Amino acid sequence: MAKAATTTHSGRTFLEIVNDFTGEKLAACYQCGKCSAGCPAAYAMDLLPHQVIRLIQLGRKDKVLDSHTIWMCASCETCTARCPKDVDLARVMDALRQIAYEEGRTAAESDTVTFQKAFLDWVRRTGRQFESGLVGEYKLRTGHLFQDLDAAPRMMGKLKMVPRRIKGQAAVERIFKKCEKRSAQGDRPADRKGH
After folding, report:
1. What is the DSSP letter of 53?
2. What value does the mean pLDDT take over residues 86-93?
3. What residues are paired with 13 via a beta bridge?
């Protein structure tokens, strides 16, 4: 394969970028498929987890970052636990989502990104998740106001209607500020691996 097909505008391969971003050594993957065989979300993916790794190895950045798979991953770490080469595929999927987000490649999965933002907004505001607020905010942001409306009566008795704040709210806000600062400085997860 020609080098030009696998390098980015920076002259580095996509494999090198993902390795540096995550601290993982994806070349170690020999495609045994254990990650894909154990993945509980594989049925919803357009690429299986081991295929994502192989495409990274081959430098197929667009195919990987434009796939639905990176957004369907639940980060349950089943793949990571099953990998005989100790590749932390859940970390890789998180990194791929971040790279895709930074490059504006979220249009196909905008609802997923909207959900993640609403989720984190509630954690930041109250220090915990507030399900009723999350559902309401997600529905308003996406415009899916009547989707799943038939489930509302069953959920009414199960969900709290008023959010409660935790006592350590200031600590949660410090965590968010620290993450924002690291992100602004270009800090990557690999810089913190093992800490």
Report:
1. H
2. 94
3. 7
Say if residue 5's pLDDT is above 50. no
Neighbours of 147 (CB within 10 A): 12
Residue (of 88, 175, 162, 168) closest to 132 by Cα position: 162
pLDDT for residue 6:
59
Count of residues making up the chain? 195
- CA 25 centroid distance within chain: 19
DSSP state of 7: B
**CATH 3.90.1300.10 applies to domain 3-105:** no
Side-chain half-sphere of 87: how many Cα atoms within 13 Å?
25
Domain boundaries, the chain: 3-105, 108-167
Task: Please name which of 69, 111, 115, 121 lies closest in space to residue 94, comparing C-alpha atoms.
Answer: 69
Radius of gyration, alpha carbons of the chain? 19
Round to the nearest angstrom and report the end-to-end CA distance of the chain: 38
